[in-house]
What does this fold into?
Amino acid sequence: MIPGMTPSEPEPGLRTLKKQRTRQTIADVAIALFLDRGFAQVSVAEIAAAAEVSKPTLFRYFATKEELVLHRFADHLGEAGRVVRDRAAGLTPLDALERHHLAGLAAHEPQTGLTDDPEVLAFLRLVYETPELSAQLLDYVDADADALAEALDPEGGIAARLFAAQYVAVRQVLARTAWAGLAGGQDIAEAGPRAVAETATAFALLRDGARAQGF
Amino acid sequence: MIPGMTPSEPEPGLRTLKKQRTRQTIADVAIALFLDRGFAQVSVAEIAAAAEVSKPTLFRYFATKEELVLHRFADHLGEAGRVVRDRAAGLTPLDALERHHLAGLAAHEPQTGLTDDPEVLAFLRLVYETPELSAQLLDYVDADADALAEALDPEGGIAARLFAAQYVAVRQVLARTAWAGLAGGQDIAEAGPRAVAETATAFALLRDGARAQGF
DNA sequence: GTAACGAACGCAACTCAGTAACAAATTTAT
DNA sequence: ATAAATTTGTTACTGAGTTGCGTTCGTTAC
It folds into this structure.
């Protein structure tokens, strides 16, 4: 076996390639329609027709209507756990998570809520302002917390699970807040530093507790 | 007006009474069926028939199938906010919340996850082990966080929102953990003290931060 | 007590998400 | 080229939630 290659993808394959393309097409068509007319106002039958597949085929690629939108978050699933596991020696988990979040802000990654791109902003608006999608998003967040807890303490201790839950909750608030500012017409030159400041507040709260903040 | 009476319920009324009774009946019938055969295995049509109402009537009382179960949590909505608002002078918000949670544990309140009652345990099992219900439950939790944040800081400051998110996340973990122990066959004489100890860990983490716990 | 009003209800029919069964088409392996 | 495995389309179904309408029943005024 060639070193540096993962063993479980021996050939791209013509079939696999077409599948990826079909999946991408369906999702793109769906999101475009949702952005145009709203999540509830577009039926899956219409999406299937526009993507030129049958309805059962659509559901072979995406388990639910919500997944058509939320699969984009699937890539980041377990990221917090990875950050902690792969952190530099001598760094606390919380330090590693803070640096990672600040790096995400600097790169204007969608998941941080801080971005200039009108398309990404519209996408986030779709997710945050559609109750069905927001609700489902919380499930992803929950899975992320589980992965983080596992990374912090494979024994499954309560302290790790508590801290993981706190962290992902805080992350959600930071992302939504940053997005809300931009969605409300804030300039990114203003929202960026503000998001960084809010991140500092958040991690100070996580690190030193509520007592230090007067709660 | 008679002192000590709330002004907004001038008459019970025969119609209102029947409505409350109908609502109760529908929910009770539904939960009994769910407990017996599982959430997905019971259709709303069947529930409506068993409760002797039509399907549209059922949906006039409960917006969704999930609400048939989760409306029981609606009573506690905003409780955290109330606890903070009505706390004794000289008590920090966090102290008030901790005392309230410990009181809930001592009273074996269902929301704490700590209870002897097999019926309540079965009900919690239904909620926690049915994905649709767990997901919806997170929405209630989210609303609770908003109310708590408002109570902590009517200005809507970020620190209050962050802390509120942390608190409700922690509360969820505590409740699920306590329940999991009992559901796994633990005796309440063992689970009770354990839940109290976990509560202490949780509030220590909230109060003094992750640094103190080595994260 | 009775008539009039409005709220709640049942019935029937509908939309839409998601699934099942089976047959046709297409890719991969031989 | 041909057989085996995988993917797809068609049709038809279940079940959640909604709509429109006519009817019933509690409430209120006379």
